[in-house]
Amino acid sequence: MKIKSNIAVSDNGFVFNPASGESFMVNPVGLGMLNMMRKGQSQEQIVAAIQEDYRAEAMTIERDLLDFVEMMRQYRLLQYDDE
Questions:
Q1: How high is the pLDDT of residue 80?
Q2: Local confidence band at 21 (pLDDT 50, 70, 90 cut-offs)
Q3: How far apart are CA 24 and CA 19, in angstroms?
Q4: Cα–Cα distance for residue pair 27/14, rounded to 1 Å
């Protein structure tokens, strides 16, 4: 899972897709997930970092991460290896 390189993300969670003109807001956890994905971190690394920061159950974080990734896929914010 990788975020498209043209997606703009501000420090306060504002996400802009210049290809579609759409913009979104993400909460602090979503911003952390997004930034770690942009750095190429694995799902396991993201879950571990969020778990350390928020002291939440790994299973809950994994589910939230998968939901977040699905939302980003629907909004066409992800880049796939064949693109």
A1: 75
A2: very high
A3: 14
A4: 9
Please tell me the distance from the alpha carbon of residue 59 to that of residue 8, in angstroms, as a whole number.
29
What is this structure's pTM?
Answer: 0.85
Sorted by where each starts, the structural domains of the chain and their CATH numbers stand as 2-78 (1.10.10.1150)
Identify the weakest region by mean pLDDT among 1-5, 52-56, 79-83. 79-83
Beta bridge partners of 23: 16
Single out the residue of 80, 58, 72 nearest to residue 9, CA to CA. 72
CA distances from 24 to 5, 7, 18, 61 (A): 16, 11, 12, 21
Structure tokens at 37: 């994905």
* CA geometry: angle 10, 52, 68, nearest 5 deg: 50
